[in-house]
Amino acid sequence: MFKNLAPAPRIDSEALLACLQRKGTPKRVHVMELFLDQDVKPPLVERFGLDDGLCKNDPFYYWKREIRLQRFLGYDYVYGVAGVGFPRTTDMKVADTSDTEANRGQRTWVSEGTGPIATWADFEKYPWPDPAQMDLSKAEWLEKNLPDDMCMTASCHSVFEQLSWLIGLEHLALVLYDDFKLAEAVANKAGEIYLACARIYMQFNKIRFVFGGDDMGHRTGTLVSPDHLRKLVLPWHKKIAKVVHDAGRLYLLHSCGQLEQIMPDLCDEVHIDARHSYEDTIERVESVKAKWGHKIAVIGGVDVDFLCRSDEKAVRNRVRQTLDACMPGGGYCLGTGNSMCNYIPIDNYLVMLDEGRRYTA
Fold it and tell me: What residues pair up with 108 in beta bridges, in sequence order?
């Protein structure tokens, strides 16, 4: 069991933001993840005694624990709010077959066939979430209690994901050609909701960047044509990014898959500040940094499959190689290629962080 982490870095959210804005090589390696699976957190807290002295009956226990955990792991931020939920009744449940200590027993998968909206009648009766009813209690508490050297982030912009989940990715392939107006209506409704969320987030001074996910690609291309993304999805990202930028904050995009055909759109039209989610079988993060690092920051990229299968020596070598290629000039934060999933061995995750702490150019 790996417990010998190098001393924790000095938390500094302003330095993190400067790194994301590519204002020169940072003094230390900053780390970022889209998220840590909830299943991963209790084993980490228990292993390092991170809730010692906290009362589990305290209504703010989770948030206090979250601050401790994030600081211990070296993150300069915490998640303040994760947006609104779009109800689905078509999700599938399967057994969790991971053999790590964070096994959750069951996993949920979004149905690829159909979703809750197949017709205009379904669209009209769907229970669309109301941003005004969003639970902001965590963000409100953090706004008052978050340490001054940390900031918050928020998530809000899964426009394509909601389009493909609510209609169903397979059914969407037909709807885009047979009933484009329905696809347009779903995308616009989701976009309007997320835009409203973004405006609400900007009321919180400690939310310094928006970092959400909208998976638009697969291994060799985008899930629908780039032109459909340009018509239905990217204009909403552009509107949300403008709200965020007008408030002086940063707009970070997590999107899985091969996005090469729309990268110019994301950089020059949407004006994302950074992109996250990289997979070796698509393109290594070092190549992405070389190609796009003059326009955006690059986050993560230590391949998830690699982390699942490798030993400590290999993980350390990979982290050093990645940092050697990506650290110069700023605009890079260390992390996994996707997120800290519950099936990644916790020891390998900690080794990745440890090597980042020990890194010197």
Answer: 93
Q: Please provide residue 154's backbone torsions phi and psi, each rounded to the nearest 5 degrees.
A: -140, 160
Q: What is the pTM of this model?
A: 0.95
Convert 243-266 to b/e letters by CB count within 10 Å (16 or more is b).
Answer: bbeebebbbbbbbbbbbbebbebb
Residues 6 or more apart in contact with residue 185 via CB below 8 angstroms: 123
Residue 130: which residues within 8 A CB-CB, separation 6 or more? Answer: 84
* Amino acid identity for residue 78 in this structure: V
Question: What is the C-alpha separation between 147 and 350, in angstroms, rounded?
Answer: 24
What structural domains and CATH numbers belong to the chain?
13-358 (3.20.20.210)
Number of helices (H), then strands (E), belonging to the chain: the values are: 15, 9
Q: What is the structure's pLDDT at 119?
A: 96
Which of 199, 186, 187 lies closest to 244, judged by CA?
Answer: 199
Q: For the chain, give percent helix, strand, coil, nearest 5.
A: 45, 10, 45
| Cα-based distances in Å from 253 to 72, 161, 170, 321 | 25, 13, 24, 24
- Check whether 66 has a pLDDT greater than 70: yes
Band the pLDDT of 106: cuts 50, 70, 90. Answer: confident
d(CA 219, CA 161): 16
Tokens of 238: 């552009």
Whether pLDDT at 109 is above 90: no
With contact defined as beta carbons under 8 Å apart, do 274 and 253 qualify? yes
By DSSP bridging, strand 332-333 and strand 77-81 are unpaired
Q: In Å, what is the CA distance from 61 to each residue of 51, 76, 152?
A: 9, 20, 18
How many angstroms separate the CA atoms of 344 and 202, rounded? 34
* Residues in the chain, overall count: 361
CA distance 169 to 223: 9
- Report the distance separating Cα 302 and Cα 308, nearest Å: 11
Three-class secondary structure of residue 302 per DSSP = strand
Strand order through the sheet with 297-299: 77-81, 151-154, 207-213, 250-254, 274-276, 297-299, 332-333
What CA–CA distance (Å, rounded) separates 304 from 271? 27
